[in-house]
């Protein structure tokens, strides 16, 4: 009996239930970790990049403690839990594409914690991987859940990806200010990130509720 099966036996939970618990926990950790780091960062404003909490960009990076440790640890833990949850879903689901994209999403978040903002270009690459694969994952999740939750997944993923693509469109193609420029870079980034965090909480709860309903029907 492997460790996963042993854990399931002790807790009486299926792979889907454990994955749901993990994803809901990762959303909570990610959201509260960011808020805690913001509060402890001197004169921080949400117009700043979220990653500034770990470290600002070169050439003169600024690191404030304990915000940096809290933020980087939050990303490491969140990413690791998402990866483990993706593995459990891979074992439990017929649709293998969704768990794979979920794992890559978690890998991106983990990489953000490993490479803070002062570690260019790796931080930027992992941040972009997190944003892009997060949006793709949330959109794909609409295919593995029932209505009306599938519509909500579509909204979360669509908003996140639309804002992300629009940043590149206005920056590289139009060469002009973004329509949401008044929110600042950090405000725009939060429109990309927060739908993903909210989805982790919601999707994790969905998996837990679904597993509970299945157990009730089999009693």
The span between the termini is 26 Å
- Estimate the mean pLDDT confidence: 91
Tally the helices: what do you get? 7
Share in helix: over 70%
- Mind describing the biggest β-sheet? none
Radius of gyration: 18 Å
Overall form: globular
Structural class: mainly alpha
Number of domains: 1
Number of DSSP-assigned strands: 0
Topology as H/E string? Answer: HHHHHHH
Strand content: under 5%
Poorly predicted runs are 214-219
What can you tell me about this protein's structure?
This protein is mainly α and 219 residues long. It has one domain. Helix content is 73%, strand content 0%. The protein is built from seven helices and no strands. It has helices spanning 3-11, 15-40, 67-92, 97-114, 122-141, 149-174, 184-218. α4 packs antiparallel against α5 (122-141), α5 (122-141) packs antiparallel against α6 and α6 packs antiparallel against α7 (184-218).
